[in-house]
Amino acid sequence: MSAPLISVRDLSVAFSQDEKQSLAVDHVSFDIGRGETVALVGESGSGKSVTALSVLKLLPYPAASHPSGEILFDGQDLLGAKEQALRKIRGRDITMIFQEPMTSLNPLHSIEQQVGEVLKLHQGMSDTAARARTLALLEEVGIREPEKRLGAYPHQLSGGQRQRVMIAMALANEPQLLIADEPTTALDVTVQAQILELLDELKRKNGMSMLFITHDLGIVRRIADRVCVMTKGRIVEAGPTQEIFDNPQHDYTRHLLAAEPKGEPPPADAAARQVMTGDAIRVWFPIKKGFMRRTVDHVKAVDGVDITLRAGQTVGVVGESGSGKTTLGLALCRMIASQGGIRFGERAIDALSFKEMRPLRRELQIVFQDPFGSLSPRMSVAEIIEEGLAIHEKALSADERDRRVVAVLDEVGLDPQTRFRYPHEFSGGQRQRIAIARAMVLKPKFVMLDEPTSALDMSVQAQVVDLLRDLQKRHDLAYLFISHDLKVVRALANEVIVMRNGKIVEAGPAERIFRAPQSDYTRALLAAAFDITAAPEGVVSQ
Amino acid sequence: MQRAVTAPDAPPAKAAPRRGWLSPLNQRRWQNFKANRRGYWSLWIFLVLFVLSLFAEFIANDKPVLASYKGEILFPVLVDYPEEKFGGFLAVTDYRDPVIFEEIEANGWLIWPPIRYSYRTVNNEIPEAAPAKPSWLYDRETRCARYPQGADDPSCTLGNWNWLGTDDQTRDVLARAIYGFRISVLFGLALTLCSAVIGVSAGAVQGYFGGWTDLLFQRFIEIWSSIPVLYLILIIAAVLPPGFFILLAIMLLFSWVGFVGVVRAEFLRARNFEYVNAARALGVPNRTIMFRHLLPNAMVATLTFLPFILNGSITTLTSLDFLGFGLPPGSASLGELLKQGQQNLNAPWLGITGFVVISLMLSLLIFIGEATRDAFDPRKTFK
Known about the structure:
The structure holds 2 protein chains of 2 kinds.
Chain A: E1 6-17, E2 20-32, E3 37-41, H1 48-55, E4 64-65, E5 70-73, E6 76-77, H2 83-89, E7 94-97, H3 101-104, H4 111-123, H5 127-140, H6 146-149, H7 159-171, E8 177-181, H8 189-206, E9 209-214, H9 217-223, E10 226-231, E11 234-240, H10 241-246, H11 251-257, E12 274-289, E13 294-310, E14 314-318, H12 325-332, E15 339-344, E16 347-348, H13 354-357, E17 364-367, H14 381-392, H15 398-411, H16 428-440, E18 446-450, H17 458-475, E19 478-482, H18 486-492, E20 495-500, E21 503-509, H19 510-515, H20 520-530
Parallel strand pairs in A: 3-9, 3-10, 7-8, 8-9, 14-19, 14-20, 17-18, 18-19
Antiparallel strand pairs in A: 1-2, 1-4, 1-5, 5-6, 10-11, 12-13, 12-15, 15-16, 20-21
Helix pairs in contact in A: 4-5, 4-7, 5-7, 7-8, 8-20, 14-16, 15-16, 16-17
Chain B: H1 24-35, H2 37-54, H3 56-59, E1 66-69, E2 72-74, H4 98-107, E3 108-111, H5 140-143, H6 173-209, H7 211-225, H8 229-239, H9 244-255, H10 257-270, H11 274-281, H12 286-323, H13 334-343, H14 348-376
Antiparallel strand pairs in B: 1-2, 1-3
Helix pairs in contact in B: 1-14, 2-14, 6-7, 6-9, 6-10, 6-12, 6-14, 10-12, 11-12, 12-13, 12-14, 13-14
C-alpha cells in the first residue's frame, strides 16, 4: 500500500459542559489508503460518528475540542487548518452522507438546486453546465427518469431516492474520500441493499476511498476492506475484514459478532385459544380534491387483511415501509378507524367508540418502535409504569401499585431501585425494557410490538428478543410482531404475514416462508436481510 | 444487562430518593439563569423593590405605624380609629392634623413611617404654589415657612420632606411613585397570569384536537384580535366606572390571544409524539394526557413568553392612565404622573420621576425575561 490518503493520528475529542470535560474519542489512530473502504464499527455512544465528524471539523466547537492528535490529508493537517482552507476541502475533496436523508436535504430547495449548488460553489459551473452534470449524476446514482426528478422536492421522493440524491451531491465534485455515517440505518432492508450496492459500485468506478460508519456487522462484511472496532472512544481492534470476522481477538468484537438474535419461536399450536381475529380489515384514507373536497380516490393502507392471533403464539408482519404493517396493527388495537370485523376474545370490538374501548385497553397493549420517543421525558420510570395501573385498577393503594411496579421491573430485568430515575438516564435497551414493563404491568392478553428492536444496537436487540420470548412463555401472550428485520422475526414468530401495498402477499407458518418463499417479493426481502443483496429491479420499491 | 437482586414480591424498598426541590433539569436551568449576570441581578433588584412596594403602607403613609395613646398600643396603619378617640370629630383620624398629633404626643408616643405621606395625602404646608420642588432644593427657612412656628416648628422634619417634590395637587411624588410601582406590577402580574391560564387552555384545546375545532377557533381568534382594543376600552370606559378589576377584565378579553399561537403550535407538534400515543394506548383520558404529557412541553414556550407579556400589560396600563381612561382619578398611577409631567413642564421632577420609575421597572423585567429565555434554551452553553 502506498502512502495513505488520510491518516488519523492519536486523535482525541473532548466535550465540555459546565466545566466538566468528557472524552468522547480517546487517542484513536487509523489510516485509509486510496481506493480503500474502512469501516468504523461500534454501538451507539462508542464515538464512531464523532471521529468521522472531526475529520471535517464539523463538531460543535468550542464545546468540542481536540486535546491531542492530528488528521493528515494529503500531508495537510486538517485539525490545524483554517476555516477557509477547510471550506475548500469540504464538499470537494472529502464529502459526507448522513444517516437521515430527510433532514439532510433542505425541504425548500428542489433537487436541481441542491445538487447544482455544490457544483456551482466548488467548480464555478454555469447554470446550464451544472444542470447537465446534475442529470448525469442522478443517472449515475440510479434515479430513473432524472429529467422529471430535477424539479422535485425532498418530500416527493422516497427514503431510498433521497439517499441517492445525497450520494449524488457527495459525488458531484469527484471527492477522494467519502464519509458515510450510517447511510442505510434509516432505510428499509431492501433499499439498504440497493444503496450499499450503489456505493460499492461508485467507489470502484471513481477510485474513491470510503470511511463507512455503522453498527451492523452484516454490512461491514459486505462492503469494507478493513475494519476498526470502536468501543467507549477507543479502537480496540483493527484489521482486514476477513481476519476480524474469522478470528476476532478482542472480547468486545466477539461480543458483537455473537449478538445476532437467536433462539426458536414457540412451537405453532393451531388449537391454542384465539385471542384476536381480524376479518377483511381495510383502512382506506380518502384523497380529497377540488373546492368541495370530493373524495376522488383512496390510499389503501390496509386492504382486506385476515389475521388470527392465538394465545402464546406470535404472528410476524413483515414488509417494506409503507406496506401497511403498522397501520394494520393500529387498526387491530382500534387506535385508528377501520372497516372489517375485529373480535377480541368473544367480543366484537370494531364498532366500539374510543371511550368504550378504554376498559379493554388494559388487555390490549402496544410497545412502540422508538424507546426514546415513547417515554415521557418528564416522568420518572415509576410514574410511567404506574400510569396505566392508576386508570385500570383504581382500587390499588399507592403501596400496592409500587409493589406491582417493582415486580414488573424485576421481570423485565431492570433493577427496581432505579425506578425513581428519569428515562434519559437509561440506555436505549433499558428504555425499551421500561416500555415493555409499562405494557406488562397491566397483564395484557395481546401485545402489539411495533418494530421494538429496530432502534436498538445489535447486541441489545438479541437481549430484547430473548426477554420478549420469555415473557410470552410465562404469560401465554399473543404477540403481533411488526418488523422489517427478518432476522428478528425468524427468532420470534411462528406465523408470518408478508405485506405489500396493504395486501397480503404471502402468509403461513414462519418455518415454511423462511425455507421456501413462494413470491419474488418475499425472496427479495429474505435476500436483502440475510445476504444484503439487492433484488432485480421492479420486485421491490426503490 | 443488569439483573435485579430483590425478589419479585419484595416490599417497596425505599421511598423516592430526595432530589432537592428542583429536578436536575430545573437545576440546570437555574444555573443557566444565574450565568446571565445581568438578569440574575435584575431579578434580585426587582424582587427587593417589589417586596418593599408590597409594604408601601409601612414606608409611605399619612398614618403612624405604631402609636401609644393613654397606655393603649394602637396600629393606625392596620386599623381605622375614629377621631373621637383622640378628641376630634372626623370619622377617620387625620394624624397629620397638629391637634391630634400633639394630643397623642402628650399622652404617649407615635412612630411614623419614613415618609409621612400616602399617595393621596395633600400636603398643605408646601412653601410655594403647587407643584412644589423637592424639599432639598429649599433652605430651611423657606421649607418651613408655611408651618405655624416657621423654622422652629417640630413638624418641619425629614419625615415631612417631599423628597421628589409634589405634583400639581400637592401630593408627594415619591409616595405616588412607590404606590404606582406596586399597582402597575400587580396589575401586570394579574393580567399576565389570567391571560396565561385562558390562553394556554385555549391553545391546548386547539392544538390537541386539531381539525374543525382548530380551524373554527383560529378564524374566531383572527376576527377577535383585529378589534381595535384601545377604542373599545374608550367606549367601555364611558359606560362602566373604570377601576382596577374592570380594566383587568377588559384587557383580559384581548390579551389571552398572545399565548394561543405558541401553545397551539407546541400541542400540534407533540400530540403525535410516541409517548402521547403510548398514553392513549394505555387508555389515559384526553384531559389527563393534555395535562400530564403535553402541558410540560408547552410550559417552556409559555414561560419564555411570560415576561414580555408582563411588560406589555404594564405599558398598556400606563398609556391608558396617561390618556385618562385608566384607573379612577386619584389612584396612584405612573401614567398619570407622566401626564402631569407633560402638563407642568416647569416642574421637571414630575416627568423625570415617572420616566425613571417606568424605565427601571420595564428594563428590569426585560432583563429577567432575557435570562429566563437563556435558562430554557437547551442549547445554550456558557463559556
